[in-house]
Amino acid sequence: MFTYQSTLNNSQLEELIQICGASNVLFKEEDKEIYGSDETEDYFFVPAVVVKPASADEISKIMKIANRDGIPVTPRGAGTGLSGGALPVFGGIVLSTERLNRIIEIDERNLQATVEPGVINQVFRDAVEEKGLFYPPDPASRGSCFWEEIWLKMRVDPKP
Questions:
Q1: Model confidence over 102-127: pLDDT tens digits?
Q2: Residue 2 lies in a domain
Q3: Sign of the torsion formed by the C-alpha atoms of 12, 16, 17 and 19
Q4: How far apart are the C-alpha atoms of 58 and 24, rounded to whole Å?
Q5: What CATH number does the domain containing 62 carry?
Q6: Residue range 71-91: average pLDDT?
Q7: SS3 of residue 128 by DSSP
Q8: What one-character DSSP code corresponds to residue 135?
């Protein structure tokens, strides 16, 4: 049976601070509150800590600590979801993608793009339109919705 650690000790917090910097590791109750829920109604789960990595390397280091110590990790984008997928029901680490917000490449020839998961839909849509392309998905939350997969590759189509 797998056991997990829902809280973190000072040593673990210090390791996370070394990876992401003090301003990107939130462990005070008032700082963590927003990360305990999404747009799902009536659910709230307080994480032990929120980390905001800025690279795949930082994510890898965070995941090594979590794996080593049996700490649950819940990835989180903008918190606009309605299905509870970003709720830290087991406590542990909330891994926020908000600093992973770069458009790596828009490949006009192959109609593909590589983006980090924290890119806001509308920002991406505007970037492809600047290149004469059109990104068709148009969720109501396009101004706040993040991509939810790391190093997502997706297709863009020429403007109709």
A1: 999 999 998 888 888 888 888 888 99
A2: no
A3: positive
A4: 11
A5: 3.30.43.10
A6: 87
A7: helix
A8: -
